[in-house]
Amino acid sequence: NAGVTQTPKFQVLKTGQSMTLQCAQDMNHNSMYWYRQDPGMGLRLIYYSASEGTTDKGEVPNGYNVSRLNKREFSLRLESAAPSQTSVYFCASSSEIRTGNEKLFFGSGTQLSVL
Amino acid sequence: QQPVQSPQAVILREGEDAVINCSSSKALYSVHWYRQKHGEAPVFLMILLKGGEQKGHEKISASFNEKKQQSSLYLTASQLSYSGTYFCGTEKSSGTYKYIFGTGTRLKVLA
Q1: CB distance from B35 to chain A under 8 Å?
Q2: Least crowded by CB within 10 Å, which of A15, A102, B10, B63?
Q3: Using CA atoms, how far apart are residues A66 and B34, in angstroms rounded to an integer?
Q4: What is the rounded (10 degree) CA torsion for A78, A83, A84, A88?
């Protein structure tokens, strides 16, 4: 059981380049999330998807786009990368919203550097 | 607005106790606690629902005061394996299911 799988694990981009971070979960979860983690800032929510076909902005959505391709996959796209987007990116999925049993499962992260 | 955690960092010796606090300016439906080891993904510890519920997980327990919009994580008789960064998570606003996190508390347990 793989859980939440992110690719790639590491990526170096030049300013202005574009790329897509991939995320897939095999737990049949409806909710999926993208976070970025910077030193001293904790985890900040970029985008959220409650179900296939729906997405919603989080705390720091500027410079990013997302696609919820199907129930399993939720991708994050940087159209024109900037040095300020250097960060560690985590994808997560969540079980059983509003039942008291919900918990977030995180992928192993993507370390992105923009030069 | 991110939940506020305190302290930002704490250093303990094995066997000592610690308390990590999390407070929010918004009314809370639930509070999650996660632990992240260096270079790894955050891992779920427990969830607390409104109602002043207290939960336990081995020697790690937590409380949730809905009126004060605060939660506290209690680590008793700490072990080396407790080292890491602890995050509390809450919904951005009630009913949105957008989970946001505090800035974290770095905990280091020394032998």
Answers
A1: no
A2: A15
A3: 25
A4: 70
